[in-house]
Input
Amino acid sequence: MLHLIKLEWLKVKNYRTFWVIFILFLVSIIGANYMTHEFQQMIFGAEAKKNPENAVVKMFLGNPPYFFPQVWQMASQVTSYLLIIPGLLTVILFTNEFSFKTHRQNIIDGFNRHQFITSKVIQVIIMAFISTLMLAITALIFGYAGDKPFSTERIEFVGYSFLQCLNYCLCALLFSVIFKRSGISIGVYFLYVVILENILAVVLNKYANNTGYFLPVESADSLVYAPIFEGIQKFFLTRPDPKYLLLTCFGYIVLYLFFSYRKFKTDDL
Amino acid sequence: MNTVLSLKGISKRYGRIQALNNVSFDVPPGSVFGILGPNGSGKTTLLGIILDILRPTAGSFELMGKPPSAEVRKGIGTLLETPNFYHYLSAERNLRINATIKGQNYSDIDAVLEKVNLLQRKKSKFSTYSLGMKQRLAIASALLGNPDVLIFDEPTNGLDPVGIAEIRELIKKLSKEGKTIIMASHMLDEVEKVCSHVAIIKKGELLAAGNVDEVLVNEDIIEISATDITKLEQVMKAMTGYTKLQREDNHLQLFYPMGMAKLEDVNQYCFNNGLVLNHLQLKRKSLESKFFELTGKVSDR
Output
């Protein structure tokens, strides 16, 4: 496995496009959370800071989201809007191989097909890990900036974010293996993740007994919801038990992997 | 190891197109084996199957006497169709990737770059290379680790005349070192100049395979003419020794196995039969016409 990591490192080490996008993505995790944090300060203002237990505020808004323990969840939720970027990088890195025909050369030089796709999956896992680490650091920074003491309650949302990132990236990997060309892979991936699935989710939730929550990417998105207006959310949304969402999300990850491996291992390259 | 490569009934279909049809032949160790055929005849498809890039529809093959595997491929240096490298990386960094996959250290990289005259440009990005330089880098990559078997698909593609001559010399040199070279080409003179064995493919069909001298056997042709060409034809029909007699416009062609034609005998024979020749010439049948004759068969059917 170290061999595969080393090889992927040689491929990305000097790839400027990758580093520019990836570093901007990591900075954006802090940046986007800073923006929403500022928004919190505006809404809750001095009153909430002075008296966080204020019953009226709590009923409508819940606790201030950037205080422990909500900060784990809030930072994960804000980060979830950015996870399309690691997906984009996955498409770029994979379809590059197709356009340079280096996927062929790697096989010719002595990789087997299983090793080739495994090296890409490892790369995705590392990217998701770094993204999650950045999220955890961000949550800690804002959590400690708040008035509440450190707490690991709700820290599971950071883990959900890791799964969500894997879900986005492996979905992107599958699209790349299917379409092979970067333009169409990026187009279809964005349209599906950002628009099509959301429309489908709304329709299914409305007419088909909330099954929209169990769509491939939506299952991960629903796991990581915002800890704001919690008092009101209860009345409007019938979100499924996280257990089932977790299981579904995990199931889709396995399916993405299964079909990606199968397609790459049986195709003419 | 009796064969470096042994193909058994390889077929490949792309939908309705039969790219290869039941191709079988053996590549002996130490040979320079040319796979010869016009563009689109299935040469690259065949090499793609050997290298696990393409899946055969039917048939099987052995590499170095073993079933094909990634491990076996590590011992083969290959240039398939186009130079395939990461555009944003330098030549040196690209070769590091190739070497890493092959499980070799980087000590060979400068040496192979030197062999193809790219050492000065090793820090330049692949995307800045000319077509010929890209091709030479691909050959350098194939030479990494000094493999015993090399597969070259159109190795002189995109090279200038000097580059072509250099690559031919390199192939001859590698062959002298005892390496087996499998080379696909649509250029007949290339095969003629460097190959010891040849397989000829046309539209996915194997037309012939074996020793170059046997497959591309040459013929001698004696061309003669006289004022009364009809009488000459009658007289010559009675002569023996040639394999075929053919009339072309105002002269006759007599075909002989290579080295068997004797102009004096023909001249003497005609004179003895009361005919004086006004044209007598020995012609070597060109390899090219032999190639057209062989590859013409399929399209004529």
Observations:
- Chain A is about 80% helix and 0% strand.
